[in-house]
## 1
Amino acid sequence: MKIVILDGYTENPGDLSWEGMAQLGELAVYDRTPAAEIVSRIGDAEAVITNKTPISEDTMNQCPNIKYIGVLATGYNVIDVEAAKKRGIIISNIPTYGTTAVAQMTMAMLLEVCHHVGAHSDAVKAGEWTNNQDWCFWNYPLIELAGKTFGVIGFGRIGQASAKLAKAFGMKILAYDEYPNSTGEEIGEYVSLDRLLAESDVISLHCPLFPSTQGIINKDTISKMKDGAVLINTSRGPLVVEEDLANALNTGKLSYATLDVVSTEPIKADNPLLKCGNCILTPHIAWAPKESRQRLMDIAVENLKQFIDGNPQNVV
């Protein structure tokens, strides 16, 4: 079997191994694939592995040997799923590799808002403590989380894992999800979206990107939030209408936003959030600890192996 990996660099910039994939067939690995070279690089390959490189119906038409598409991620919106189904092409994704890592990043972002550890360290190194007349100082309000309310929109695996960590800090948990379950009920209280928006001190997004969730954070939903609330997004950028969020940050309606994802990635230079001083932006790294990427690699290999053996798993 010929196997092509179209954009392997972010999954494996050199600290992991593709050996497991190479044992399953004739392997070609590309760090990145420009749009104009997608068809030529796939060629007559039967298995295509992609992360963010799109696989369109036109590509499938020009590469009729494709039998399997593996996604090096949970989301699969870069693939024309209906076109693949019509052709009998199996698509497998990686649904569970990053739960711990993303939940950890969610807390890291929240704790940065509470304590501004990096900024205070920079201030000390700049001499502000040495030259201070008191034995301590702080440049930002410091926040204690115990007793505050942590609202989670999208209470699946990552949302629940994040809520468990927030609960360990003494926070009350509210959750909004279209499909409540008993596991979630043990962690927090399922409520309506309006109630979550009105009562939460911190709102964390963990829902998938569907037409029903695109732009779920907008001027209307923001208006229902507590004054001074904090928004965290480690899920999908288009869940947020960024112009509306920027306005809420600039007017003080929200005290802070922390986002690991934005609507267009890499972020565009004219993104209004770049000019908001009370907005923390990181370059889509919540998923990326080495341990998490190794799990992703192991599952991707197993997905392809099971397909070859006639027992496809994690099928979209």
Note: Residues 2-97+290-308 form a domain with the Rossmann fold fold (CATH 3.40.50.720).
## 2
Amino acid sequence: MELLRIATAGSVDDGKSTLIGRLLFDSKSILDDVLVAAESASRVQSDEYLNLALLTDGLRAEREQGITIDVAYRYFDTEKRKFILADTPGHVQYTRNMVTGASTADVALVIIDARNGVVEQSRRHAVIAALLGIKHIVVCVNKMDLVGFEESVFTPIRAEMETFLAQLNIGSSHYVPISALNGDNVVEPSERMSWYSGDPLLKHLEEVEIAATPLEDSFRMPVQYVIRPHTSEYHDYRGYAGSVRSGSVKVGDTVAILPAGKTSTVTTIETPSGPADEAAWPTAVTLQLSDDIDISRGDLICAADGVPRVTQEFDATVCWMSENTELRPGSMLRIKHTTRSARAMVTALHSKIDVATLGVDQDCQSLALNEIGRISIKTSAPIVYDDYTVNRVTGSFILVAEGTNETIAAGMIGDPDFGDF
């Protein structure tokens, strides 16, 4: 079955965790011990009903405060699809966690409290979803039970989000009025909102068209480890281990090795299941080549036609994640891109985006926690990349503080798909 990855997004107390809990509960995807633990915790909190948010908020601090802090992943399936749900925080200070949870998603669920309408955090998470290349956004107008299930409340929220999303080059958007607490329009249609003629949320998620998987892209395999047994039996063995991050490779294929720019032929493919004639995304493999080429960790083995670019200078969009420092031109950091690590210098800070208005500040001097900007980077070693819009793996990177090893930024190479950013 197809796998659909979903990330939730929205403001604080919009009901993200409750919505995921409702999806799991109504689709009968809750293990008995998890359900018992949630029921017990609900009684401790003196709730008169099962608190569905407890099915995803696993940290003690989350249960005590009633908020989501870390990204929680939950898995379930129906007869049509398998799903991975990422429950991401709504607090502004945890925006960086939302970036992490949405980085692999196919669909973003933007949850909006019907009482509050579209708020800054709703727009912020929609912008981040667009930057991360998510082409499907489902806007769930939640807590309709608290506004009398009135169409007159839902309609202006939908209109405002339609106008905003039109600026983000989103492939498709869908709007559902729901009550996660009561289950209206989550798994089953709501009799109390007969004015809504669309599908309930789960049915839409089962049928939404998924973009092409990495399997359909060009072959890319970052080298993680070079295997040299140094034994008499395997004296001439040299294997290049890594995971196929996109596309597929066959014995006999001509491949390019970058950044060296050499080509060779695949002679053998080893997989966890043994030798194979072909391997595809996302299999872990060891390749042997027909030529002796200097290949090491951080190099890329790829299809000989349509090779990615090799450079030591590039522009990127970054989300700054450090609470302790700010990003400024001249900052010296370490970049981790696929399996390569190198020193990096920020040579320019071009602009900063106001995620609430999509306005661009081109006179900014720095980026602080959770701010998003366009920068130029120069690296000490060549980076082999595709634009992020083409390949999420070879187009993404993280920046690390050299002294502390703290991850301080997540970046996407190339130009975003929207605006004058």
Note: The first helix runs from residue 16 to 26.
## 3
Amino acid sequence: MNNQTFQNLPLERLSSVLKEQHETFSNIDLGTPREILPEIIAGLASPKTLVITGLRRVGKSTLLAQIAHNQLADNYFFVNFEDERLLNFTADQFDRLHEALISLFGDRKIFLFDEIQNVPEWERFVRRLHDQGYQFIITGSNSSLLGQELGTKLTGRSLRYELFPFSFREYIAFHGVESPKTSVLTTRERGALLKHSREYLVNGGIPDALKYPKLDILKTLYNDVLYRDIAARYGIENVRSLQELAFYLVSNPASEISYNKLKTNLKLGSANTVKKYISYLEDAWLFFTINKYAYSVKEQQIAAKKVFSVDTGMLNSVGFSFSKNIGNLMENLVFLHLRRQYQDVYYYKTKQNHEVDFFVPSQQLAIQVSQDLSDEETRLRELRSLVELSEEKKEQHRFQIVTLADKETITTEGTIVDVMPLYEWLLSVRQYSEI
């Protein structure tokens, strides 16, 4: 359908599409309540546009339905711009769309727009009607495009939220398990949570993949993002290079990467091409990169980055023989749960060039991730890095080692380190904050 076809689409046919979308949305399975829901509901008290970004199929539409069900009664319009019948919809057609919505439902003051990044210059309409007193909740799967548009037309008029795959708390709720109400757990509770944490590492938190485990949803999702959201959107002709880069990253999470080394190893032409492709992969929510902590921004940019996947289930589904590497899966999962709450997540290299997996300066928090500490060499290595960081950073810090099942408190060279099992750490971390 081209622009001319859409413009000539009879109002009756357009109304039929919109009515069908509304009925489908109204009857959607509300699924597992998302932890971010109370924060978004609190945001509704402001007149600002609420923007929810996240990976395809991460549950943005379901979250919209949860918001509508909990808060909006029937006072909203819903439009899904991922619908192929609205392909090539452009900003100058919003008034016609609005007219069709009013003819169906009367004048309502709240718009729910799903996957809005498919409409170029959508922010023009949103700003105009926002100034007239209308409210918008919009979702999108490209963080950069939304950020650019918000920055040009909606500066100071929006609240942004990020939706990730299920947290561990949401994962066990999906499986009908109630989160412990106290920090003191019985042996049976610890055993059950350990079992679920192991499964969570392998399965990840993409709702549809958990709901339909026999379908190859994660591979399909991965390919959709590569081909539809990146290659097609940015006109990439050498798709194979993008494929090879993405496959390398999904097979090597929690690893340091260098643009120059990737350029050479994958024969990608230039370091700038690698950098550009990785930025596309990040914007589409497949991967995240973090910098080495340094006082100098220049040093941060020059140093190798570490790369993480948006979902550990995707690592196991798409990556090369990855499920056996529990340590890297754990580190990826710890990153995701830190990133839900904090923007300033780094890795740290001591002056002796020993690595601390995660450093969050705003929280004065340093974390190592290790499958277990039964091996004395591993135990000493993990503690050594934390002690060196403690000596280099004179402020009071919290030091943690996240393991699969170990729990203890270690004092070494004046540094107190809390060792926590993964399931306990995941349940203790507050999962979401507005960005």
Note: Residues 1-5, 431-435 have pLDDT under 50 and may be disordered.
